Amino acid sequence: MSRKVLITGGSGFVGSCLGLGLAQRYPDWKIAALDNLKRRGSELNLPRLKQAGIEFIHGDVRNKEDLDPVALQPDLILECSAEPSVLAGYTSPGYVLQTNLVGTINCLELARQTQADFIFLSTSRVYPIAHLNALKFRETETRFQLLDEQSLPGVSSQGISEEFPLDGARSLYGATKLASELLIAEYADAYGLRTVVDRCGVLTGPWQMGKVDQGVFALWMAAHYFGRSVKYIGYGGTGKQVRDFLHIADLLDLIDIQIQNLDKLKGQTFNVGGGTENTLSLYETTLLCQEITGQQIAITPVPDNRTGDVPIYITNSSKIMQTTGWKPQRNAQTTLTDIYQWISEYKHIVSNVFA
């Protein structure tokens, strides 16, 4: 069945990769990418979108006039727009609230008016910071390791599941995403929309214009490639903090499955990430980047913790894996090598973005 897809944040890392992947898999689908191009480097995706036959719309989810149901007429909305930085919530709360909450409301209104299906990319940061800081872990030579015995429900050595508690402060960024999730459930119930919420952990891969507070694996590889210094921030400056990661191509595989199975999956929320098999500490990331690039760079330890940071987050994706049969296919070596090859091929256009 041919679909008319609108991807908000469609020139960003996630939105553009999903759009390009779906365009390749379904040449008869009509795909449009809406983006305000605020994120540095997002403009570099415009030629790629055009080449793939994806219509680019220079618009902003904060402006409901840019989401005209008559002009757009989508039957599927992939809501990838966001200010994705936790730190931005502390420095630019107005922009985060307008983009991540009002923007989602405007997208939901478009879905209501067009009866479009709605897949929302949420975040692991909906879980409260105090609860994540209360996780029990041990310190090994290269990383922090989650223990099986935990005092909170929904967490084990396998990571954080959907049963993890939601009471408490989680950053303005996390709060806007959780509030959006609640509104999505209401719109689905009130207007009969087919919706899915994906609480994503760290997403990474080629074409991610990484920053310190968002896109750290791409940033780390770029620093090694271009010989620029980085910092181990927080937790004694040892670089032992851990995240699981998911290659963007694995997310594409999942979104494709979800689109094809919306009747079965509608109304559900899933934790989506690489899981225990795909985790790295910053220290381990450094070792892999050294191995892949053959370069060593200066790393400054900064012992003090950063506002809103957590020492360890691992996604337990067993619910989505059991429901769909999906499983991440790309490990750390593959993922970081893909990023390295992308930077190497496009160094002339990405070097300034990572400056």
Task: Give an overview in words.
The longest helix is centred in the N-terminal third of the chain and has 22 residues, at about 95-115. The protein is globular. The termini are far apart. The mean pLDDT is about 95. It has helices spanning about 15-25, 45-50, 70, 90, 95-115, 130-135, 170-190, 215-225, 250-260, 260-265, 280-295, 320-325, 330-345, 345-350, and strands at about 5-10, 30-35, 55-60, 75-80, 115-125, 135-140, 145, 155, 160, 195-200, 200-205, 230-235, 240-245, 270, 280, 300, 310-315. Helix 5 (about 95-115) packs parallel to helix 7 (about 170-190), helix 8 (about 215-225) packs across helix 13 (about 330-345) and helix 11 packs across helix 13 (about 330-345). The protein is about 40% helix and about 20% strand. The chain is built from 14 helices and 17 strands. InterPro entries: Epimerase_deHydtase (IPR001509), NAD(P)-bd_dom_sf (IPR036291). It comes from Aerosakkonema funiforme FACHB-1375.
